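Predict the assembly for these three chains.
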Amino acid sequence: MAKTIIPIGPYHPLQEEPEFFTLTVEGERVVDIDVRIGYNHRGIEKLSEMKTFDQSTFVIERICGICSTSHPFAYTRAVEDIIPVEVPERAKYIRTIIAEGERIHSHLLWLGLAGHFLGYNTVYMWAWKLREEILDVMEILSGNRNNYAMFKPGGVRRDIKPEDIPGVIKKIDSIVPTLLMLKKAVMDDPVLHVRTKGIGILTKEDAINYSALGPTSRASGVARDVRKDSPYGAYDKVDWEMIVTQNGDVFDKVVVRILEMFESVKIMKYCLLNLPKGEIDLNLKDIPPGEGIGHIEAPRGETFHYVISDGTNRPVRHKVRAPTFMNLPTYKATVVGETISDATIILAAIDPCYCCTERMAVRNAKGRKLYSGEDLVRLSQEKTEKIRKGLK
Amino acid sequence: MNLKLKALLKSPWVFHLSTGSCNNCDIEILDCLTPRFDIERFGILLAGSIKHADVLLITGSCNRQSVVRMKRLYEQVPKPCLVVAVGECALSRGMFIHSYNCPVPLDKIIPVDVYIPGCPPKPEAIIAGVVKLIGKVK
Amino acid sequence: MTREQVLKDIRERFMEDIIDIFDKSPKRVYIEIKPESIMKMANYIFKNVGARFNIASGVDMRYHMEILYHFIIEDINLLISLRVKLQKDKKLEVDSLAPSIEATNWIEREIHELLGINFKGHPDLRKLLLSDDWPEGVYPLRQDYKEWDEGAIRDRGV
């Protein structure tokens, strides 16, 4: 059978992970895949070397809009590792609250888009409506919807006012019933089971060899979570569970993310109720020469920062590793052998970002036929419709 | 006002194009479609293909690799089309001005009609920007 | 295995290859090794000790290039960084880990194009991050990087 080349991309807005996929297909089956990233490279590692340690936090925040807490969190921990120093208890709790709020909104965002790719626009609208509530909470706590600017080396910039806490807790409680409804809607749906179970399986061996991170690895049975392995912030003081499932298919990745949101709600509430009193900042003046490593669990996996200081007020070298940098190559192991209509959801399952999927272009080898990204989503949605009819 | 422009303004279809942004502006643009803001009730629709677009929402700091594609896409838009720069990066590249991979700002590459500042601009600001754009053309 | 056992095991097994061990804190160990022995040490730590590959980071120091391979052993919460120093007056070259550890594939491509270090035996050293028209031999993360694009605009026009 003639081989067909399908270009997907190129735009993709995460910092290290903009991508251009080239799928080689035989009929419906994907036989090979290649990726080219770099459409979003802004040289942040170099820019960070031009700024002072304090200013760098703001550049780091703009690496990714969804992980705008994870990157500063890892960076500040790397700087604190140079000295080394422990931040005050209250700052640790505030950091944990912000990080967990971000996890909920990131997972909701992903859930909505995954629903959209499968033809469940209702899930998309519900999830994003719910996400607005979380963004409101974040706006009350930090003053902005997305870039929170809460972190600085040695502590946090802004305190949480005691009078805000009851309102915030009420708001968090109010999202739980809707979350439960979403969980039931997704996990009890027979059509969704057919579409996602056994699709795009990442085996445990592959997950280990590719060093997959976060929900992608936890869905494959690799219990890997920096919050448990190397506790930071207030995670060792809260009672929470790591969600691990065994199958590694798309459905398990959905389950891990949905169940994680409930854990995040639990952690957030505990931290808000047990916020210790005291300082929120150490007022670090000088950073001594040395090197430091900071790694934390972002919504998508481990974020890793490595900073070298030479005693001046600027870092000499700042290395950033975002989780998708390790997760994206696993696409090679999961998508080969699947059909094109499943490619979108397998791509979405590792939660790279959604924007590329909206600008896919499919072309057959002779270049006669041209599909847009819409058509690919439509193909996927038509398949869901077929299955739905078959079940009835 | 000619007929083409009148038809365009009745229900502008927008296409959003990221040229090396941090994702925040793109999410806020998508956010406008969801129940809380719901700009579809005003006839503003996110188009999946550039061939259907009337308004281009451009985010990001124009990096070397994507700028070539952006120019190519701009040539494919049916004219007349309006260009909106969303977010600080698209306005002036913001803090990425000294980056080795972001050499030229957006408005030196293609003509821009409306600038929406903010990092990221709130969905309300994006809606206000599009409304101002329509008012300006009228 | 406990932390001490792991370190003792590595120290005894690779006595010839290790130049220096810097025990920074209970969670961090930096091991400086000879460039030619990175292959066997990384493979041993990844496959036998059961560590996870975090990332590698290349640094341009004044007289040498440095590559750090970070591995984390999750059970005992120990981050091992293998430090390889490449002298600038010699050829900047080191063995590639990509054929045996799939996870190192991308980061070696990245270091290759941003710092200009060659990885011997890497299956595919194409460009990853920089644009297609980026000139050959210009490495942005080196200390001596200068602006090469004459068309670049660096002022805000106010």
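The helical segments of chain C are 3-13, 38-48, 105-115. Chain C touches chain B at residues 130-134, 140, 145, 147, 149, 151-154, 156 (CB under 8 Å).
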